[in-house]
Structures are given as C-alpha cells and as structure tokens.
Amino acid sequence: MRWLRRPKTNREQGAAGVLVAVMMLVLIGAGALAVDVGQIYAERAQLQNAADSGALAVVQACYKSGCSQDDAEAVAESLANANSNDAQSNVAEVDLSVANQATVRTTTQNGSNSFLTKMFASALNAPPVTVGAYAVAAAEPPSSGKGFPLALSDCQYDLSGAETEGEVQLIRYKPGMGTCTSTSGHVIPGGFGWLDQSSPCEAATEADDTVSSDTGADYAAECDAVLEGWIGAIKRGNRALATFPVYDNAGGTGTGGWFHIRGYATFDIQGWKFGGGSKAPRVFHNAAPYVADPADECTTKSCLGIIGQFVKYESIDTFGGSTGGGGGANLGTAEIFLIK
User: Fold this and answer.
1) Is the pTM of the predicted complex or chain greater than 0.90?
2) 14 in a structural domain
3) Which of 55, 117, 286, 315 is 20 to 30 Å apart from 305, CA to CA?
C-alpha cells in the first residue's frame, strides 16, 4: 500500500523579502541622514558668513558716530541676507552692550519659524532642526603700521572723541611749528618729520615704540608714485586719506634722531609742498583757490608742509599691524576685525 505524504515546505520562503524591506529602511534612513546633515552643514556655513559680515558691518557703521539698536539691526539684516546663498538668514540678535563691539546671531529663516526644512528625515518622523551661528566683531586702534614715511606731531592732532573731523590746517616741517607739551607730558617739536624707510617709500612703525627719523627735509624719489595716487584721488573728487604715525616725544640729532610713536591717525590730505621741485607731484594745491584760509597756504620758499584735516576713520583692512590692534592710543582710527 502506497502511503500518501504531504510535500515538504520551505520554511525560509519569504525571508529574503523581509530582509530586503529591512535593508531598504536602513538605506533610506542613512540616505536621509547624509542628505539632511549635509544640508545642515551647508546652511550653517551660510549663516556663519551672514553673521561675520553682519558683525563687521555693524561695527563699521557704528564706530564713527554711534548708532541706535534699530539702525544696527537694519545693517545686520541687510548684510546677513546678502551674504547667504538663499537670502533666508534671520538675524536673531544684535548685541551692542560692549563698547566698540557687536555680536550678531543668525538663524535659518523658514516662514515664521527658524526651523530648517528637512528633505528626507521628515519621512522618518524626525523632529525639526534649528540651525544658527554667531560672530563678534570689534574696532580697536592699530598696534603697528607700514606706510608713507612721515610722522605727525601730537601738537597738531585736534580730533576729539566726539568729532568726526578736525579743522583744516597747515602742518609744517620743522622748525616752523614751535613746540608743545604732548598728552604724555613731553615737550616735543610741532609739525611733522620724515622717518627712515624700511623699504622704498615705506616706514614700519609700532605703537609705544621709538623709530629712527630721517635727517633730510625731503622724501625719497620712490614716493612720487604715492603722491601721484593722492593727486589722482583728489582730482576725481575723492578724499586722499592716509594713516600716519603720531609721535608724542622726540630726541637725538642727525642719524641718531628718533620719534616715540603714540598711535595712528588718519589725515585727509588736501594739498602739500615738499622740497625737491616746484611742480606736481612735489607741490600740489598749496595755495588759493584750493586753500580757503590764507593762514593755511604754503607758498614761501622756506615753507614745507602738508595741508588737510584729521578725520575719524575705520577699516576692515589692517594698517600693516597684526590683526587685533589695541596697542596704540585711540586717535580716531581703528581696525575692524572678527574676534569670534
């Protein structure tokens, strides 16, 4: 008698399908994580750019004459959006509590909230993500500089903390300006003096340090190009601004002459008369009608001088010193830089 047997069944049938389903879920999750994390990092980089530019702009806008909280926030918002690819950076805070500093915090702007919209992770019911960044910028006096080899006397500096520009004046080369007592209590010669060059038409100086003075009454021929640049700016209707070291003590004679540098001030150059010739670039706008006050003219044979006014000035570019400034006296000129 033949026995009837039930056919054997494959108990593992369908296991591959389950495995594929589980792996698909893992792969989708990993893909969602990779895409969304990449999106978060990209968004944070944009927000950091927005915070950096906003903080620098706020300090620059507020340094000269101050600004209200509303003004600072408007500046930060305009720069924040302009420096993000999607123009969707929200300025969450502008902190002006520290003098000459600004802290700007940015977050993602997504409709009425600050949540970053996720492309894939939302399918896994992941919570929303808030992305943000912050930056701190400051304005401080330069600690050192490199530039035109001329130093101005503390006697001539006339810019108070509340003013954005001083009086137009003629600053004469020694010995035409007499003497004065500086804020450091030293009796110093008025006017200006030439500095030893560290390279063609350039002198390197540091605040609160002494530098060697040049024995001649004229500058080196390499400086003609700098003067031509000033002339070009003035003829185009622009200001010719130069940042000079200011000395508050001087001594020595001949090759042993020196100046002690107090800090750095910016001068709006409007005319001059230097030795070595009677035409531009050695002489430029040194008399009427370019000089309004006859007392500021420099026309006599013995007169060597520079005509203009001190101005309050700030720059994101350094003046040749290390970023961070802070070494010299505050003479109305500041370097603007990021602290964080």
Assistant:
1) no
2) no
3) 315
Among 140, 159, 186, the domain-final residue is 140
Residue 150 and residue 274: Cα distance in Å, rounded?
Answer: 12
- The identity of residue 37, as a single letter, is V
- Please give the radius of gyration of the chain, using alpha carbons only, rounded to the nearest integer: 32
Q: What is the pLDDT of residue 113?
A: 45
State the Cα–Cα distance between residues 303 and 272, nearest whole angstrom. Answer: 10
**Which residues share a beta bridge with 245?**
264
d(CA 84, CA 51): 10
Contact between 304 and 273 (Cβ < 8 Å): yes
Residue ranges in the chain whose pLDDT is less than 50? 111-115, 321-324
Tens digits of residue pLDDT in 197-239: 888 899 999 999 999 998 777 777 889 999 999 999 999 999 9
Residue type at 131 in one-letter notation: V
> What DSSP assignment string belongs to 50-113?
HHHHHHHHHHHHHHTT---HHHHHHHHHHHHHHTSTTS-EEEEEEE--STTEEEEEEEE-BTTB
Residue 4 lies inside a defined structural domain of this protein: no
Out of 140, 166, 184, pick the residue that ends a domain. Answer: 140
Residue that is written with structure tokens 């001088």 in the block = 305
Q: How many structural domains are present in the chain?
A: 2
Task: Tell me: do 231 and 200 sit in the same domain.
Answer: yes
SS3 at position 239: coil
Q: HSE, CB side, 13 Å, CA atoms: give it for residue 179.
A: 8
